[in-house]
Amino acid sequence: MITYNNNRETAVSEALPSSGGTTPAFSLSAPVSVEQLKLPHNIHLVALNNVGGFDIRPGFYEINGATAIPGGVNFTVHSHGATAIELLLFHREATEPYAVIPFPPHYRIGNVYSMIVFKLNIEEFEYAYRVDGPYEPEKGLIFDKSRCLLDPYAKAVTGQSRWGETSPHEQHYKARVVKDDFDWGDMPSPLLPMEDLIIYELHVRGFTMDPSSGVKHQGTFAGLMEKLPYLLELGVNAVELMPIFEFDEMQDYREVNGQKLYNYWGYSTVSFFAPNTSYAASKEYNREGNELKELIRLFNSHGIEVYLDVVFNHTAEGNEDGPFFSFKGFDNNIYYLLTPGGSYYNFSGCGNSLNCNHPIVRQMILDCLRYWVTTYRVDGFRFDLASILGRNEDGSPMSEPPLLQALAFDPILGDVKLIAEAWDADGMYQVGTFPSWNRWAEWNGIYRDDMRRYIKGDGGMAQAAAMRISGSKDIYQPDLRKNASVNFITCHDGFTLYDLYSYNQKHNEKNGWNSTDGSNDNHSWNCGVEGETQDASVNALRLRMMRNAFALLMVSRGIPMFLAGDEFCNTQFGNNNAYCQDNITSWLNWNQLKDPKGADMFQFFRYAIRLRKDHRILRDNISGGALGFPDTSFHSVTPWQKQFAGHDHYVGVMFAGKEKSADIPQILYIASNAYWEPLDVTLPRLPKPFSWEMVLDTGTALQEPKPLDGRNFRIGDRSVMVFRAAPAPEVPHSDSYVAR
């Protein structure tokens, strides 16, 4: 029972007492001085009350979470439906609290509870909450005062610092207070233009976990930092980290045929404000996140931006049968999309869907992204199943979702990249129609599917391929949505590039679902043999197909992104949904980089990336034409083809433009033959003194310019070639020629 003592006679305790895990009675004592509290004289906040021996006062109501301040810690939490909230303090790894401090009723303003507790050492405690309120499941109200709840604004979560191990002391999540004293120095962020990006998607653990990585700190942020020279050599300038928010890899842990299966990818968020502590190479008590900050600072200093793959479409609490550790206990009916009967809408395919456009949830997401930008200097975000972020409280899609609009115009987020996976698991597909305010880019799933089908030789795909290579103007209106298309052929979700041309079907048996999981719509081709083979001709074809795919990705207008390991033929052995595989299936095998085929592929990727960087015309419409040629034109085996027939497998795309800062034309012609026979091709006629030179050939893995004698050439079967208009040295050129 809680008692209030208003006689103003309670003495201020000079030591923090232990309550032995029981709820203490508390009294409201008279104000005390800084001398009585033994605080420095420059501390202007003094206790107004005493609760169970703890000196407290009302806190800062607008600062969510737990924040260290001179002399104590400020705790602020809110709940619309709660009737009472208690703060629980734990010693490290303890299962029972050593103190329970109820928020006095008059410390509540509106729906916000805020309290400063004096003389707390943040290195000596962990904390959680208990929330009381009505239990009416049919209305979505499921308050349970017996449960320990994780602070929705927790900056660090305990109990998961060792990958694959749940501490025997952990029966529920608790939080720590984090010191924000990292010194960023005066180094500015890279602020790379969208059109100049080359994005490299990777999994922090899987990137260096295999011993072949050769790093000291395997599977960690520190291990990734050790690979910086490799990334610089490859030429990428942005890394997209698969989820690094705190998640529980032991959620849904299983063993199948002796194989341990985890929540490896991490698309099941426990805490939106906290980094995954198991990705740190060392313990970071009360400085959680410092290693990640060091990574971002290091990468930024070398011109590489860092993006986070964020999951705001659902949480790890799941549906009615899922765990109950945070949002369900604070305001279940606010944080989640619920049916009229109080059950969970499941647009995510993971049990629940966040109610993103409720003002409370919208504000939390905005606060979260601002926190990662200001505290971690994150350069951009990729939003998983982002279409859910545009659903109303009844689940219906909104034309102008308040959350997406708020993120688009938020001042703090003004320089960061916002990239949407513009679909969800319930059939909403918004590629090309995602609400953007000319601010959001999209994973272009249509690019992926059309290019996969075209490259493997499907009929009727030539016109679509031409549109994808030229920037998908049929999907994105360039005047309204500049730099909207993030082009990709592979990503974490699906086959690797090597597997795309080694398997006709997925092979997910090791996932334990009888291969019923993962997409069946892969548009892959095994080149004649399923899986590994000793057939030299099949292996040569597979490598050429890989070069074709990457070459076309690099010469397509839009923002290219590819999956880590594709550059040295990484395989997942045909598994196209390796979400649970914390083993050699998902870990990059760096020995493949030493293998001749992997080493050659790496050099080809380097060359294709450099080719893109050296030719601005591939990244941007730099003038609108040059030498009498239009900015973009399509060609068959003879020049000036405007439309492609269903039987066509050859696509020629030519870009022409001039640098704005100088009168220097750039002309590039991309020749792509998805046909299974060689073809004879004629290039457009160039005005003197220009002539064509070949700068890329996937058939021979050409990696240096080679002059072409005339305009005619033969392109090999299933090959890609790129030609450049090269002027004779020191000879003036003319723009008067009109190509016909």
Tags for this model:
740 residues; alpha/beta; six-stranded antiparallel beta sheet; elongated; disordered C terminus
Topology:
Elements: H1 34-37, E1 49-51, E2 54-58, E3 65-69, E4 72-78, E5 84-90, E6 99-102, E7 108-109, E8 112-118, E9 126-132, E10 135-136, E11 141-142, E12 199-202, H2 204-208, H3 221-226, H4 228-234, E13 238-241, E14 245-247, E15 254-256, E16 259-261, E17 269-275, H5 290-301, E18 305-310, H6 327-335, H7 359-376, E19 380-383, H8 402-409, E20 417-420, E21 440-443, H9 445-455, H10 462-469, E22 485-488, H11 497-500, H12 536-555, E23 559-563, H13 596-614, E24 632-635, E25 650-658, E26 665-673, E27 679-682, E28 690-697, E29 706-707, E30 712-715, E31 719-727
Parallel strand pairs: 12-13, 12-23, 13-18, 18-19, 19-20, 20-21, 21-22, 22-23
Antiparallel strand pairs: 1-2, 2-8, 3-4, 4-8, 5-6, 5-9, 7-8, 10-11, 14-17, 15-16, 24-25, 25-26, 26-31, 27-30, 28-29, 28-31
Helix pairs in contact: 7-8, 9-10, 12-13
